[in-house]
Amino acid sequence: MPPKPGPAMPPADYAILQEAAEWFAILRADDADPADQQAWERWHDLSAGHRAAWRRVEAVSAEFQAVSGEAARQALDTAGPRQSDATRRSMVKGLLALCLASGLGGAALLRRDTRSWVASLNAGEKTAVGAIRQLALADGSQLWLNTATALDIDFSPGLRRIALHGGEIYIASARDSQQPARPLVVDTVHGRLRALGTRFSVQPQGDATLLAVYEGSVEVAPRDGGMARIVPAGQQVRLGDGFIGEPFAADPNGAAWIEYRLQPEQMRLDDFLVQLSRYRRGHLSCAPEVAHLRLVGSYPLADTDRILAALEATLPVKIHRLHEWWVTVEAQLPQSKQ
C-alpha cells in the first residue's frame, strides 16, 4: 500500500490549499498576465490563512526546483506529447498536491530516490499511469507490471534478476530449466528479495519496500548486508534501509489489480482513494469529514471516472472537479426542505 497521507487538514485550510495550488499553476503558466498577478496579490493579502497556504505551496515548489532542468523537463514530459497550457497548469498542481498529500518533502523524496528515478527514465520495461501489463519471462515465470512501473530484466548464466526502479510487480515464479538452477531475485533500492517457489508482489514505497507473499516463501535481505529473513505465504513485510520490519498479515485482495480491479474490504475512503490515485494523473483526495467512510466491493480499473461515479451513487459524497486533474470527494450536502 502506498505511503499514507499526512495528518488531515481542517476543512477551511484544505480549501485554501486548493486555491493556493490553483494560483501557483496560473502564475507558472506561459500565458499569465499582469491581471493574473494583481488578482493573486488580492487573494494572497486577504488573510493570514491565504499567506500560510501560499508559503506551503512555494516551499514544495522550491524543493522540486532542486532537480536539474533536464530532469524536470523529462518529469513533466512523462505525461506524453506536449500539453496545452491549461493541462500543464493542472499537471503542476497535481505534482505539488501529490507531494503535499504524501506528507513527504519533495527534496527529501528526490534525494532518496534520485538513482531509481533516473533509472526509471531509461528502464527496459515500463507501464504508463493507469496501465497494467503481463509478461512471460524466458524461464517460464509470469510477471505483471502495475501502473507507473519501471524495471529492467537481466537473465545471466548465474542469476535471474529483476531490477525494480518504481511502481509495483507481481511474480508467479517458475522452476529454472538450467542446471544448476539460477536464483530468481528482485532488487530494489532497499535490498534483495529471492523467490523460493512462490507468488508475491513487490512495491517500493519511498522509505521502504513492501513485500507481500501469496504462495511459497521469499527470502528478504537488506541492501547493507544485514541478516536475511524468510517470509512465508500469507505474510507481508517492509524492507527498509538497514532493517526488516515485523511480518504482518497480507491483504488477500492486495493483488486484485492483476485482474484489473480494486477489491476493498471495509477499507476507509481516504485509503481507497490513495490506491485509486495511482491509476490516474493529477490530484485525487477526499475532504476530512468523509475520510472515515468504508468501502466494500469490486471496482474495475478500466475507467477510474466510473469508479468515482459509483462512489457518488453509493456513498453520501459528491465529486468536485476544480480542474480535470484536481478531483476531491466531498460530503454530500443534505437537500434543503421545500
Quick description:
With 338 residues, the protein is an alpha+beta fold. The protein contains 8 helices and 20 strands.
Strand element count: 20
Q: Please identify the top-level CATH class of the largest domain.
A: Mainly Beta
What structural class do you assign from the helix and strand content?
A: alpha+beta
Low-confidence stretches: 1-12, 66-83, 88-93, 98-112
Please give the CATH architecture of the largest domain: Sandwich
What fraction strand? 25-35%
Average of per-residue pLDDT values:
81
Helix content: 25-40%
Radius of gyration: 22 Å
The CATH topology annotation of the largest domain reads as: Jelly Rolls
Principal-axis shape: elongated
Largest sheet: 13 strands, mixed
Element pattern in H and E? HHHHHHEEEEEEEEEEEEEEEHEEEHEE
Q: Provide the number of structural domains.
A: 3
Total helices: the number is 8
